[in-house]
């Protein structure tokens, strides 16, 4: 029985001499794998559509294991993301994290929309560093490791000066600083952005300008937090780190 789904390709794997297995993240069915027969042949009808980040409508025959791709109609190729090395690295990082943190065929239209919007905004030239920090903050909930951001994790105070504690998984007010001697005393703008990225839908966050030092602190906090709590070891993260060093 043929099925149709709107999806974004988040992973491709060569299979044999001429085939590919593509992993789609779809709006309707979540993550699923499809065999694109002959996709590695230059003149294949799937040569252009079985590529990473391709967004479109896919018609396929679904079986218990890997389905078979029957037709692919490209809606958006995100060309600028795919042709710019650093944007490709950011896109691959988002795709791999979603792949690692989701199960097959678990519908999640919110996560699909998040990936689509961020790829689209990167493709249109918005600050990719800011967009990737939005993504990382949103994915904390998917990973089940959201820190306490709205009040002191130790006493509940909501006003005053705060630092971020990796150990306590949240913010500490000035009176509770001694709870964690290794707290990160981030600028107020950093914590404000973390709250903004956590609470607001990406569609409601405009193209904001962020100071280089603020971006640096955001990245540092999120990297340490993910390393401590997520258990993720992403190949794309290592590649991204190498690309960022070359900039």
Number of helices: 7
Helicity, as a percent range: 25-40%
Radius of gyration: 20 Å
Structural class: alpha+beta
| Secondary-structure element pattern, one letter each | EEEEEHHHHEEHHH
Q: Give the oligomer, counting copies of the same chain as homo and different chains as hetero.
A: single chain
User: What general outline do the C-alpha atoms trace?
Assistant: elongated
**Spatial order of the strands in the main sheet?**
1-2-3-5-4
CATH topology of the largest domain: de novo design (two linked rop proteins)
CATH superfamily of the largest domain, please? Recombination protein O, C-terminal domain
CATH architecture annotation name of the largest domain: Up-down Bundle
Number of strands: 7
Family: Belongs to the RecO family.
GO cellular component, one term: bacterial nucleoid
Function: Involved in DNA repair and RecF pathway recombination.
Keywords: DNA damage, DNA recombination, DNA repair
Q: How would you characterize this protein structure?
A:
The structure is a single chain. By secondary structure, the protein is of the alpha+beta class. It has two domains: 1-77, OB fold (Dihydrolipoamide Acetyltransferase, E2P), CATH 2.40.50; 109-246, Recombination protein O, C-terminal domain (de novo design (two linked rop proteins)). 38% of the residues lie in helices and 22% in strands. The chain has seven helices and seven strands. The strands form two sheets. The chain has a five-stranded mixed beta barrel with strand order 1-2-3-5-4. It has a two-stranded antiparallel ribbon with strand order 6-7. Strand 4 and strand 5 form a beta hairpin. Helix 2 runs antiparallel to helix 7 (235-246), helix 3 (109-123) runs antiparallel to helix 4 and helix 4 runs parallel beside helix 6 (212-229). The model has no long low-confidence stretch (mean pLDDT 95). Residues 1-78 form the DNA replication/recombination mediator RecO N-terminal domain. One of its GO terms (biological process) is DNA recombination. Keywords: DNA damage, DNA recombination, DNA repair.
């Amino acid at each position: 029985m043929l099925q149709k789904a709107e999806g974004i390709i988040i992973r491709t794997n060569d299979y044999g001499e001429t085939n590919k297995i593509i992993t789609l993240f779809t709006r309707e069915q979540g993550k699923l794998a499809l065999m694109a027969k002959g996709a590695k042949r230059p003149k294949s009808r799937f040569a252009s559509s079985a590529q990473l980040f391709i967004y479109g409508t896919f018609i396929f025959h679904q079986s218990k294991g890997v389905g078979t791709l029957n037709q692919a109609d490209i809606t958006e190729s995100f060309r600028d993301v795919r042709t710019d090395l650093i944007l490709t690295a950011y896109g691959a990082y988002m795709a791999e994290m979603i792949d690692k943190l989701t199960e097959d065929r678990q519908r999640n239209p919110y996560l699909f929309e998040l990936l689509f919007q961020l790829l689209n905004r990167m493709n249109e030239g918005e600050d990719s560093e800011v967009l990737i920090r939005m993504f990382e903050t949103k994915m904390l909930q998917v990973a089940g490791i959201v820190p306490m951001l709205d009040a002191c994790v130790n006493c509940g105070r909501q006003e005053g000066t705060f630092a971020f504690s990796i150990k306590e998984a949240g913010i500490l007010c000035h009176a509770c600083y001694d709870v964690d001697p290794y707290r990160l005393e981030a600028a107020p703008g950093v914590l404000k952005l973390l709250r903004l990225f956590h609470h607001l839908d990406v569609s409601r966050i405009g193209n904001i300008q962020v100071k280089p030092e603020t971006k640096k602190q955001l990245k540092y906090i999120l990297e340490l937090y993910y390393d401590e709590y997520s258990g993720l070891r992403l190949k794309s993260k290592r590649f991204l780190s190498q690309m960022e060093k070359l900039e």
